[in-house]
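Mods, move this if it's the wrong board.
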Amino acid sequence: MLASQPPSSHPSNTLNMAPVADTTSTTFASASSSVALYVVNPNSSAVITSALAASLAVPPGCHANFVTGPPSSPESIQDIPGSIISAAETYRSLVASSPSDDLALHPADAFLVACFSDHPLVGMLRQKCPSKPAVHLLEAAVVHALSAGNRFGVLTTGRSVVPDVEAGVRKLLGGNSDRYVGTHATGLGVVELQTGNREKVEAAITTGAQKLAASGADVIILGCAGMTGMQPLVRRACAALGPDYASVAVIDGAIAGMHILAGLARTNYRA
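Not the wrong board. Structure tokens:
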């Protein structure tokens, strides 16, 4: 351990610091306050919500509440009509759970919409309650992927979701980009990822991860809330291709989203 040094008495050691820029326009949450993150599963499958709650580590200084969509929401979201229905039903449920039916009074500091698509619930929340940050898994995962590596690919469920995923990626990137190698559909269902035959699920995830890595992805995104906790499986699948693939990064959009929202909630850009 280094010994502490006494303060210098020599004026020559005193630095003349430049004026610090005025930061009064940005409000920072107190370090002692806990950020309330609401992880909203917009489908009606409680098994997916339970899997998220069991596998996600809450960022320091935060606490998380996990919410499942109402029974009127689809069991899984596999296409655009399903997204629209789930957004409308879950939005109604969130409003109904707010004091005086006012979403601005909802106890959440931020909302993570736990669906890997350009889910319309995020836009609804941003418009109706701009003071509470909201993101979905796709947006959060892509934001992290762009900093975690050079090229990324998405591992998802059925073929029907691929067009929506690809449209969401293009929207975030502002068009087509060489940094995106594509999306691989495993053919697995959302609920099946957690409750289906383990051998079948692991084989499909392994095959998909290896195809994305072989296509040049050094970052693989888990493109479904039901894939939460599968990072070790994807890493093993890539490492099996050889040492050149052992360092492939694996991103869970739910983890990425929680950390993004924790920062946005603490740094209140709208204050």
